[in-house]
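Annex B. Sample input.
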Amino acid sequence: MSQRLEVGLRLQVPGFALDVDWTAGEGVAVLFGPSGSGKTLTLQCLAGLVHPQAGRIVLDGQVLFDATAGIHLPPQQRRVGYVFQGYALFPHLSVAENLAFGLHGAPRTERARRTAAMIERLGLGQLERRYPRELSGGQKQRVALGRALATEPAMLLLDEPLSALDMPLRRTLRDELRSILSEWKIPAVLVTHDLAEAYQLGDRVIVYEQGSVRQAGPRGELLWRPASESVARILGIRNILRGRVLEASPQGIRLLWRGQRLEAMAPPEPTPLPAPGSDVAFFARPEDLRLIRKDGPPPDPVHHTNLLSGSLIREADFGATWTLLVRLDEPGAPAQGDYDLEIEIPRFVYDTLRIRQDRHWQLSIHFRSIHVLPS
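Annex B, continued. Sample output.
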C-alpha cells in the first residue's frame, strides 16, 4: 500500500501566520519558496517540535496531530528522522557514535548491528572513528542522513540539506542524495529555496509564500504550468510580461504586446481560456528566444513565428552562456525597466554571431514557447 502524508496546519506566531494544506505520497515532497515563507516551521510541526494551534497531520493512516481530537504525539513517538540545516552533528562524538545516537533505547547488539549496516550502506567505512571536524562536507551529509535513517523512521525530514556545501559539491551530492532517498522508499519532506535542487530531488513540489501554499503538483507541472504570475515569480521565471488578449480558442491565443501581435499556445484543459479584451500575464523563457542569423536565408514563417526586432543594451557573461538584454524597436516604455526581453544563448553562439560588434537583431519566439498564465 502506498504511503500518504496529509498535512493541515494553522499556527500564529508574532509577526507571522502559517496556514497550509497539502498532501504527498511516496517519494520526496519539496517545500519550495523564499526564506521566511514557513517551510522550516512546517518541518518542525511535522516532527512534533512545534505545537500548531489547529489542523491535522496524518502519516500512512496514523494520526500524529489533531487539534480537534486533542492528539499531539511527542517527537519520540512519531518515528520521524530529521536532518537539520548544517547537519548538527555532535562534535565530541565519532561518526559511529553520531550514527548510533538515536538508538540509545535499543539493546547494545541491535545498536551495533544498525550502526554497522548504516556505515556500509552509506559508504562510511574507515571513517567510524573520525570526528565531524575531520570530515568533508559530503561525508558530513552522509553521517547526518545515516543518523536520521538508523532509527528506521516512517518519514524523513530534511531542512536545506545541501545549503552548507559549496556549489560544485552541491551539484555532485544532489545525485547521491536522490539515490539514497530513492533506495529507502520512505516518504521524505525536503525544504529548499533552490529551484534546481527542488526539481532534481523532488517528486512533488509545494510552493510556499508568506505562510500559504500557492501551488502544489508534480515537479514538471510547476516549471511549465505555474498556476499564477505570483508562482512564476517565486520560481524565478524570467520574461514575465503583460499583454491584452485579442482572440482565444483551443487552437491558440493571439496577444497584443508592445504594439506587436503574438501567437501563443492555449493553456491545457481544464484551465479556462482568457476572455478577449482581458489583460493577461505570460512568459517566454530566455533560452527559448532565437536570434535570426543575418548571413542565412530569410526567416521562415513556419519555423520563426512572432518575429521582433530590437537592440542589445546590455549583456552578462555567465561562463558557458551569455544573457542579452534587448530593447524592442517599437516606441513606448520598455516592459521591464530599460529593456523588454532577456535572451540566453551559448557562448559559442555569442562568439559566432559576433554579438559584441553587432547590436541590432531580429529575433523570434516560437508560439509554443509563449505560456499564458491563469488569471
